[in-house]
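pipeline/complex-builder :: batch 7 item 3
reading input block
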Amino acid sequence: MLHRLSPQTIRILALLVVLLLVILFFSTQVPNYLSGRLFNRVSSSVAIMALIATAQTLVILTRNIDLSIGSVVGFVAFATGSLITDNPDLHWTLLVAFSITLGMFFGMINGFFVAVAKVPAIIVTLGTLALFRSVLVEFSDAKSIVTANLPTWLINFPNTPLLEIGTLQLRASFAVAVAVVLVVHIALSRIRIARKLYAVGSNPEAAEMAGINIGLTVFTAFVLSGALAGLAGFLFLARFGTITVVAGLGFELKSVAAAVVGGVNIFGGSGLVIGALIGAILVDLIDSSLVRWHLVSEFWREAVLGGLILLAVTMDTLVMRSLAVWRTARSNSKEDRRANVQSP
Amino acid sequence: MMQRTGSTTCLTFLQAAADMAPSDGIRLRFDSEAASIHGEADCSEGQDYRWRKETGMTCWGHTGQMYTPKSAQGAMQPRRWRNEMKILTTIWATLLVVLSTAVLASGHVKMLESGKDIDMVLLPKFLGILVFDQANEGAQEAHAELKNNGDLLFVGPTPENSVAGQIEIVTTAATQGQGVVMLSNNAGDQIVPAATAAMEAGTRVVTWDSPIPSGEGEDVFVAQVDFGSIGEVMAEMAHSLLDGNGQMAVLSATPDAANQNAWIASMQEALKDTKYADIELVDIVYGDDQAELSYNRALALVDQYPDLGVIMSPTTVGIQASAKAMQDEGLCDQVKVSGLGLPSEMVSYTLNGCAPEFALWDFRDLGYLTYYTAYGLASGQLTGEIGETFMAGRMGEFAIEEDPGRPGSRRILMGPFTVYNADNVEAAAK
Amino acid sequence: MCEPLLRLENVTKRFGMTTALQDMSLDIFSGEVHAIVGENGAGKSTIIKIMTGIHQTTEGRLVIDGTARNISGARAARDIGIAAIYQEPMVFPDLDVAENIFISARSGWFLNQAQLHAEAQRLLGRIGIALDSSSIASGLTLAAQQAVEIARALSQDVRILIMDEPTASLSAHEAKQLRKVARTLAEEGVAVIYISHRLEEIFDIADRVTVIRDGIHISTRPIGDVTSEGMVSEMVGRDVGNYFVKAPSTVTSNSLLRVEHLTREGIFSDISFDLMQGEVLCMAGLVGARRTDVALALFGINPSSSGQIFYKGRQINPSCAREAMDAGIAYVSEDRRKLGLAMPMSLRSNVSLATLRSFVGRWGFLDQSLERMTALEYRDRLNIRAPDVELSVGMLSGGNQQKTMLAKWLRMKPDVLIFDEPTRGIDIGAKAEVHALIREFVANGGGAIVISSDLPEVLAMGDRILVMREGRQMGIVNSTETGQETIMRLATGQASVEAA
């Protein structure tokens, strides 16, 4: 049965098992752990990270990385906040469109330097990480966006329950994030040009030989990633209300962690957006569970979280490797049987 | 800098004071192993005095009022504190805890001469935060007032580059031959080599808001309020929000933030008072001064402690994230948020009852006072010695003293501390 | 014949000062298998790169279907219907077979998975390959990956298929299968340009043969007018006298390396042999025979799970490469690019890489002048054609890279040298030089284990031949008493000989 599934599917299943194990473990450690509250907490806080992890995945698939994503989220959140503060009657569609467009603009800047100027992404985005943040500092003029100046619909939006089962709530922010992730996931597996993202990351040389425009593909990945980061910026604004220049600081590493835990190959070419979503959930779940776990003090929490992520990725690598060996052995013996039949 | 040593008696102290203090309002301090030698003056160890021509020596009390030394003890009592807070809301909390063997350096209140030519750099922790810009406004005000012909630069690193950026700016300032750097230190003792080098190159280093922990490489620290008093104010606010009985938790910035840790420690000290016997501090968590992390931490606290009544957050990021979290989850009736916050960020939560009471000092004043101090030092009008007293424009007179939290280092204590509630928050938020 | 499909007219290509192609003219007709032969560096890759749009001509032009065309890039080449497959297949390791085939398909926005896989199966069926179109490419054999590439070319309505050393990494059976595919395509009207160092393949498949040397066109003839000797002498520009001539044996009776029942669970089992001083022991077998795995076990990289290795009578069983090297065993890898050489580094640094300790001078710094002298010495001794030893080895030709790798290990002065496919993908002249070097090494008291898939080479070089099949030792035969057929029978499992 196992050999029928693609490695990616197995990876997703494995992640779900790990997720379940984590929940089971903490439910024995933390009183009142299994409750609708836990779901509500994790689902609302993971909404933003899920979008950012998805954005990061698009870029990582092409063998690049976007370290500026936190600065983009921060900037978009701030700029969108300023816009709505100054024009409180703006229609929500325009506001969302503004966020996404602004995010795409930042994606284009990154994409230009990586795809056209051919500067390594890690250097480009390390530069724009600081650059975008500095522009934000300049732009913000040391003002903060404050909840009091935002329209009520925006503040209430993220926590509006779309569906309630007991204490379990499906909140708008989580629903939006999951919907976006699913759309991107389906697009990546069904749209023809999306396949080019994988091709470019999997084997750039071969992609060039196959007539794929590598530059355009990478550029597109950055722009799409920017659009998702822009949407995340919008959700960030709605969720936290108060936006200062430190908004989104550190998101770049969290998004990379979520993607990698979710089975996205850091060297490009393979990985599923769904995986990144589950990775984000797993990291967030472990993080918020550790806070509730008294055995681990505050000072060790980061270390334990890092250790657990390392453990998860190591396990994943080991399992996938032994699976590959097992499969090769299997298919070899099959092919040999076939070869024997054909031999003169 | 020469340290005055040796002790003096009350008699010689008063004699010296009479000789050197021709005008009213000079603050003096007496310290001696033999305080009772002279019977005419009621000298107490480690107490502050103010010279008045007509009455001679009187004690300068904690709330800025005139007290005789005996009644001065009463000003410390919490009950009185609370009443004053409720009525006045603005309290002049200038706690002077004197540990040193300080002696009189100069009896004169120095009036700073304006119109000098000093290039100055105001260096915040990082750019883009309202309070630092307010400090800059205060500094600019002082800059204009003192008619400094030099330049006042407001430069700072970006948030993600704070530590390295600060070190770089201090180094650059020294290289450019700036007269003085006014630093809100975010680099801990990592800044010491750069700051020491700057001082050796002739650039004075005045810290404000957040000092250099070891005190090395720093002329003087302009402290917003006494760190001990922040603890008391927080304990008091918790007491009032809990009606004297219940659970509280602290949501701080980073686990290694020097300011916050000192304030939390002083709050824990204050909570030992029998008055707070029914208040239980259940946990201290850290939101790393990031909105999203603080928000999640606040919710985790609520989940973990079902009977929690107050979240006390001594950081502007943490307090507003906690308030937002409580508001979003409809928990404001159950859990109140308090701590140190900016009126403009907190106004809606104060009015809707999520954060009915919080405190802060005025950053404009802090910038103003820091500028005066730095200007005085860099122009050579102040020496920076302990006991030196000077006039800081509209804010009145201030003295350089030993920092009780950092023995061997000097500080100037600003003092004004404002508690905000529904009555005054809207005006302050404008 | 009719109008040529593709014509190179007086094409010259220069890279800076070097001329890669000089006034080259060539006609390619549809339906023919056109072999291009020449030593490495003769200009074959440059021709391919010009045809596939990677390089542009400096002078001259390309005429396609009677009109002069400019092939500006990979996309333009694909539009014309030109595709190329290489020794190292250009697949996307993370994608499945169907996705690989249709990666640059241009119709429609959405992918219909079912249709995609059906179409992939149809194309694979057309070239007679049975493959599951949903397998991930990284798990496929090289032969299967090449089949995927051919299917991709077919999906793009290929008219000119360039095959560059396609069989160099394949077993004999797979190579035969591939030639059959090429033939089928030619019969369907595709022009196949076939490049190979294996002359017997060319006689098997080609309709016409073009010989080039040093960027110059030497001859183009129908296959019937060509002899093997004539072709080789045209390629090298001289007579290669002693190629495949057996050198006198130098075997002694001193055992250097004795291997008993060496097993690595699930990979190979029960390998036993003796390597004598002065002996060349060849290991023959098809791809998948696990010869390299045995070599890696001897060299300590993938240690064996049971069995013994005796080195000069002392049991060693190395658990890492350093232990094997300390004992005196060296391994010259098959994969120059990945395991053998640090391509961006200089010839000098590569030669000293395995023996860096001996170059540490005063104060613990590397003695660069000693390094340089050593590198120059080996360059001259091994006839490595490089103007200077500071040149990065990535810029050398395959044969010279191979010799650089030999220099690196010879410098270590090992007693046992394991060569893994030492002559793969290098030209005949360089092959002969490598053979001579191995002979010289054993004549001076060493012992060599040579893994090779080239049977004439195995028979010419080896004193004895160990034949493996699927991780099992099928027998050890004496090269003077055996022929290609016997070895093939052992390698395909139709016979076995008890270990001597």
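note: The longest strand of chain C covers residues 18-28.
queue -> next item
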